[in-house]
Amino acid sequence: MCVPIGCLLSGVLTTPVGRRRSMQVICFPLAASWLTFNFAKEVWHVYLALSITGLCGGLVEAPVLSYVAEITTPRLRGMLSVSSTLSLTFGILLEFVIGSVLHWRTVALISVAPPVLSFILLCFMPESPHWLIMRNKIQQAQKSLAWLRGWTTFDAVKEEFDAMCLSHRVSRKTGAINEAFDGSVSDVNTKSFVDQPTSFFKEKLANSKNFIKKSFLWPLAMVSFIYFLANFTGSWTLQTYAVKIFGTLNSPMDKYHATILLGLVEFIGCLVCVFFVRLCGKRVMAFVSICAVGICGIVVGTYAYTNDIRYLQLNDAANASATPTIDSHNWVPLVFLIILAFVHHCGLKPLPWILIGEIYSHNTRATGCGISSAVSYLFGFLANKLFLDMIKSMTISGTYWFYAAISFVGCLVLYFILPETEGRSLQEISDHFAGDARLDNKFRRKLNEGESDRDTDLSKVNSISIS
Fold first, then answer.
1. Contact status, residue 268 vs residue 343, Cβ threshold 8 Å
2. C-alpha to C-alpha distance for 54 and 338, rounded to whole angstroms
3. Is there a contact between 27 and 119 (Cβ–Cβ < 8 Å)?
4. What is the CATH T-level fold of the domain 1-126+217-314+325-417, as seen in this structure?
5. Is the pLDDT of residue 342 over 90?
6. 117-157 pLDDT, tens per residue?
């Protein structure tokens, strides 16, 4: 429960501090929490370390997701946004593996390395150019964008940078171009586009109004629904209760080895998503993933029903002495649960994490990412907490049939509410959710002839009517 608290705070802290600096600061308490695990002498030491780890896990959501969305081009944004889920899944798999061969204190000590290494590597990374522009640090933003586009010169990215500045100016003026700005792109590099000085409280009040607009509430509702689907279709609870589920369903292989296999296929599923999201688009990946999850849920539920397996065996002693054997049917739940985990991580699992870096406007992105992440972990907490009660009341078969029903209903709802954002600029996506334009559901496999790979189309910005 510390994770959603960290998520809610992350958006608030990321905006004034900066994306990169926020990630660096979080590395310190995260490393300290793993050291606390290693040297723990009392039970409360473990709880303290666990709470700090959860808080840091939440705090890092907004800066990571905002940073990845803001530094990438539309052509690569979907692919690189999946990398956060890919890294998370790889970390889980790594902990599964080293935890099966090393003492838990040694595992905790090894886990100090990633935050320390992250802090060092982030020293060589520039801040997000979008955040720098929002802070009116124009020269630093120029250098940052040139570095991020392959250590090139500013002249090579001048057009993209000018468009980026214009998009921020338009968002600040709610669609109107300031009269002090004469429309010349070169002026963006030299003129400040911060409005006349206002009081701190007036500025905060003006910013807070962005969070009650359709451009924020609509994407928040959509991504919250997708998080609900991701957590209440069976994969999340499978990851949590994997050992118990495999043991109860008489897995033909050792339940701990099956759990490691589960982590491996989840990682492979994310890896598949990284490459196929550019080839198929987000909508197709989501529909195929959620329908396949539903089919797997039906098969697992039917197996449990036909074999009269009603409840989860929580007592390890109940099947500790049983030797895994293969009969004519007990391979069915193992295979389909593994497939469920694979297809879930091919589309439905990483989808909302990709979207939350794209669907919010510049002014609300960091806070939106934090709130959305908090919603995800709250749903995950509820899914895990309700799982055992659902099995008690509906049995294993009823629970997985219920998950399947949610999957198919969710697929139908997503068909109408989920736009195709792959290959689209951040400005196009923001205009769609603000109601100023509408994205079609066609997947843009490649840029049209004469169209540059940048986040904002200058012609569209310059053609915005003054309200």
1. no
2. 27
3. yes
4. Growth Hormone; Chain: A; (1.20.1250)
5. yes
6. 999 999 999 999 989 998 889 999 999 999 999 988 888 99
